[in-house]
Structures are given as structure tokens and as C-alpha cells.
Amino acid sequence: MKSLRCVGAALVVVILSWRGAPAAACEPAEGAAPQGETRATKDLSEMLGRACERFGQPGMGAVVVRGGGVEASGVAGVRVRGEAARIEPGDAFHIGSNTKAMTAYLLASLARQGKLKLDAPLPEVLPEMAAEMHEKYRSVTVRQVLGHRAGLPPMTSGAAPDRKYKEGLEGSPREQRREMARRILADAPASEPGGGMVYSNAGYSVAAAIAERAADEPWESLMESRIFRPLGMTSAGFGWPATKAHADRPRGHSSAFGPPRPQPLGDRYELGPAMAPAGDVHASIGDYGLWLRENLAALRGGPTTLDGEALRMLHCLSAEAGGAPKGYALGWGVSPSPRGPMSAHDGSAGTFYLTAGVLPEADVAIAVVSNAGGGDEACHEVAKRLLDRFAPRPKPAPAPEKPE
Question: Residue 368: beta bridge partners?
Fold first, then answer.
């Protein structure tokens, strides 16, 4: 795998149907549960093992959060197809575009601290780029950037129009993001700013540059200090989980040309620092469950370790949605579902696949992951089964009897 072109729509676009619907609520749901409740966790390993066999996946993991704690979790399969080492509960998976909600949280929390405004125009938050910024970007707001309504280029493939923004980037990760943001904003928009949603990985690189300027701190450091360390996400990091230095970790697998093939250690294909805020975090399924728990608790009005109001902001559609019941908020896709409002997002950079959803009225959040880029069908099927098991659809009210 030598380029983003090999994986098609890298970092996979949000799935607003999640085989049954995604979405969210801005007002806390009633019946908030205590955070971090201790309980016996149900083991999903056997279920996941069957899914690996049925869908030809090397390995999978899943977590179910309910009532303020982990209700069920498990892993199954192998770290590398064709090898014997089994996936362990603490093993990290690449979460792809589910990184976006975390990046959005950084900006929401900075806004809550008064260090930036989500409705500020780009020249205000990136003044050093204002002079050469394309005129059509001058009225674009931070909120529009996070909601994919800024007209920024998609950058979901390795096509030539995208490569020009990344080629020759030098310096620290922060310097690379700042330079890529400058190049993008000096160019003409890829679509009309303020129009309909056009999914953009580039937007989250620009968003990270905004956060870094407001906090005067690199995105990686902000992620660690504002999310990973407070939540105890000890497995969380950046880039592929498996490297030459950590060869015993789960490797991603490409399904682009047939059965899943392991990604070579040291493969030249990587997202790199400039694109990292759009989708280059890895974490164990259990640690990702801690992030889901925070989002669920915030939406239910319960206690949170992170800034609960900033978390709720991620799940609220902007006024630009025109009152529509579904759309893209800040790092989450939102829409109605038979189980009440739901937020959901899928993520893949071509070698892993993760799907996640948060349903505050049902008091449940679920994530399912595979270490294969073609794991979408497997992950969605397991997610559907987990929803049916842990958040069954409410039974329809009986039809009124007809008068005789």
C-alpha cells in the first residue's frame, strides 16, 4: 500500500445510516446514571470470534457502555493474519476518522475557556494567513470548518489536487499543519463555502492549526493533556499501532484487492502529521469506550471528567442545518433513530475499520472495530446485533380497537 489512492475514500466518510440511523441530542436526556459504576462486564469475545469467521476478518473488538460504565466488551482473532498471536484486550486499533470528534472537542473546550470563538471568521483565528487567504474563505467560521461546510478540499484520496497541499512539508508536526493550512486557504475553495456539507479531511487539519494557535501548544500535546490523560486512555497514541519498534501490536490489513493482507511494518503509506487531526489516533477498544462513556454521560446530563458542555456541543447541529433532523455536527453525524436521537461516525484509513454510536435516550454507546480496512460489513452487523441486545427497539403501541 503505497499511497492514499490505494484505499479509495481514505478516512471513510461518516455513515449517517449505521444500518439503522445515527444522531444526537443537545439537551441532556433524562435519567442520568452515575459515572464509572463497578459491575461484572459481559464478555463479547465468542460473538466476535464468530463474526471474524463469518466475514473473514483477522481480528475484531467491541465495547458497550451503559449506565455510566462498561456493560460488555471483548476482542477476538489475531494481530496479524497468518500468525498465531491473538489480539489481547489492551491492544490498540487505529480509529481513523473517529479522531475528528476528539479534535473538535479540543476546539470546543478552548472556546469554553474563551481562547477562541466557534463563530469567529478564519482571518480572526488565523490572522497571519489573512493577507493571502482566498476571499471566499474570509467569511468562513470555525464552526463551518468543523461541520464540513467551509468549502475546503475533501482530501479523501491521493489524487494530484490533494497532493499539492502536502508535498514538501517540513519542520515539526505543528509547522507542517500550519503550512498546509496556509496553502489550502490561499487556494480557491473546492466547493461553495456555507453551502451544503462536503466532507473534508483537510478541514480538520485547518481546525488543528486553529487550536494550536489559540492554545500555543501542538495538537498532539492538546490531545494528551485534554483527553488521553484525564480519561486514563493509556493505550492511546498517534499513527499505526504496529511499528518496527512495536512489532507485536495488531497490524492493519488491506482488503482492496481480495482477502485481507497485512500491512508491512515500516510501510511508506501513512497519514502523516499534517493529516493526523483528521484521523490518525489509535487506542484499545476499552480506552475508546472511555471516550464514548464521556460523550454518553454528557448527553445524559451526568458527571464527566472532561468538559461536559464542550462534549454536548459536538452533538448539536448548527443553524445552517435549517432545522433538519440529521446532518453533521462537530465530529459526529447526527439523526433520529427508532431508539431516540443518535450520534454516529465511522472511521478507516484503509487498514482498520471502526464504527461507533451514542444513543442518550437509550443510555447506551457502542463501538465495533476490525483490523481490516474492509471490515465495514462485519462491524456494522455486530453493531446492529449489540444494539438489538442492549438497546432493543421500543415495542409499538397497540393499535386502538375499532368500535363494533
Answer: 62, 355
